[in-house]
């Protein structure tokens, strides 16, 4: 895989990025109604209640990765693993709009407390999440937060994703490029391009947010050039 410019993950002020995303989601929750809580999200088969319950759970799960890492301890991402995560979503999605908003708000409080406590020397501490580091877990929460805020369809979508997130997503999701394809992505509004994979050349162009949305399996706000687009592989 070749990339013309590396994603600026090391230069990213991750705490500020997380804070901005959390503040944005809080603002969207303020107007949540009962009808909105029961309405479909962008994820097939999930209402907003399902999606918000998932955000609540992943916020707490990744926050505790950081919290325990600072104590020198490793813990599971979810108590009880994936089965417990899925059960919590099924049990929680039918709560009232007020209960959902309050629960997500409490989870964001926990996330803010955990991530703000990470000091400059803590980011490389070990966590159980992907057998990796606090920084890797923080980047995962950033992705989950921003992508699922868009999936909630509460008046904001991938077109408001910050440029650094979009560049990070291209880097993180490069493994989705199908085998035997050399994919050249050109961001027409950001003077950036990437060449990902090897094989038959395919060129895809568009705005940076639209390229990132497509790689993340979300619908771009504006059409991309390069039809037909290659079928992407699974999420890493």
Automatic annotation (TrEMBL):
Residues 23-152 form the Mycothiol-dependent maleylpyruvate isomerase metal-binding domain. Keywords: Isomerase. Its EC number is 5.2.1.4. InterPro entries: DinB/YfiT-like, Maleyloyr_isom, MDMPI_metal-binding, SCP2_sterol-bd_dom_sf. One of its GO terms (molecular function) is maleylpyruvate isomerase activity. Coiled coil: none annotated. It is an enzyme of class 5 (isomerase). The keyword Secreted does not apply. NCBIfam families: maleylpyruvate isomerase family mycothiol-dependent enzyme (TIGR03083). This is Maleylpyruvate isomerase, mycothiol-dependent. It comes from Actinacidiphila cocklensis.
